[in-house]
Write a structure and sequence with these properties.
4 helices, alpha+beta, 7 strands, binds coenzyme A, globular
Length: 169
C-alpha cells in the first residue's frame, strides 16, 4: 500500500486527522460527493445521516475535508452506507484507514457483522473491501441508478465474530 502522509507541495509532511463529521462540514462533504459519483447524495442526505445519529466521520488532510465514511448502526449489524476519498488524495491509504476505523467502531458498538453494497463496475472499492475481509454474500438486482438504466449491487459482508469465540476442540 502506498505510504501516507506524503509531503505536501512545500515538502512539509501532511497532517491527517479523522474526526466526527459536523454540520459545518456538509458543504465540503457534498462537494467531494458530487465530484466523486455520477449519482451523488444531496447535502440533505448527509444532514439526515447526522440527525439520525449514524456514525459519520471525516478525514481531514491539512485541515481540509479529504473524505468521509457513514455507517448505520443496527442492533447487531452495521451497514456501511458511504465511503469516499477526494480524487486528488486517493491511492494513499486514506480509504483503508477510514474503513478500518469504521469497522472497529462498529465492532466496539456490538455489531456482529458489517454489510455494504458496491457497484460491480467499481473494482477499486471491491479490492479494498475484499482485502479487509469482506466477502460477497448477495446481489441486489437493479439497486443503483446508472447511465443506461439500473445497475446491480454486490452485497458484501464482514463477519466481526470470526475469531472472537474459537470453536470447541
Ligand atoms: C474506494 C475509495 C474510497 C478508496 O479510497 P483510497 O484512499 O483511494 O484507497 P486506499 O489508498 O486506502 O487503497 C486501499 C486499497 O483499495 C484498492 N484500490 C484503491 N483504488 C484502486 C484502484 N484505482 N484500482 C484498484 N484497486 C484500488 C487497493 O486494493 C488498495 O490497496 P493497495 O494500495 O494495497 O493496493 C476511493 O477510491 C473513492 O473514494 N472512490 C470513489 C467513491 C467510491 O466509489 N466509494 C466506494 C463506494 S462503495
Amino acid at each position: 500500500m502506498s505510504a501516507f502522509p506524503r509531503a505536501g507541495a512545500a515538502g512539509n509532511p501532511r497532517i491527517v486527522r479523522i474526526r466526527a463529521m459536523m454540520p459545518g462540514d456538509l458543504p465540503a462533504v457534498a462537494a467531494v460527493e458530487r465530484a466523486s459519483y455520477a449519482f451523488p447524495w444531496s447535502e440533505g442526505i448527509f444532514r439526515d445521516c447526522l440527525r439520525v445519529g449514524y456514525l459519520c466521520r471525516v478525514v481531514e488532510v491539512d485541515g481540509t475535508i479529504a473524505g468521509y465514511g457513514i455507517v448505520a448502526m443496527g442492533a447487531d449489524e452495521a451497514h456501511l452506507l458511504n465511503l469516499c476519498v477526494r480524487a486528488d488524495l486517493r491511492g494513499r491509504g486514506l480509504g483503508r484507514r477510514m474503513l478500518l476505523l469504521l469497522v472497529e467502531r462498529a465492532r466496539a458498538s456490538g455489531a456482529e457483522a458489517v454489510f455494504l453494497e458496491v457497484r460491480p463496475s467499481n473494482p477499486g472499492a471491491i479490492a479494498l473491501y475484499e482485502s479487509e475481509g469482506f466477502v460477497r454474500v448477495g446481489l441486489r438486482k437493479g439497486y443503483y441508478q446508472a447511465a443506461g438504466g439500473r445497475e446491480d449491487a454486490l452485497v458484501l459482508k464482514r463477519d466481526l465474530l470470526a475469531g472472537r469465540h474459537p470453536p470447541p476442540a
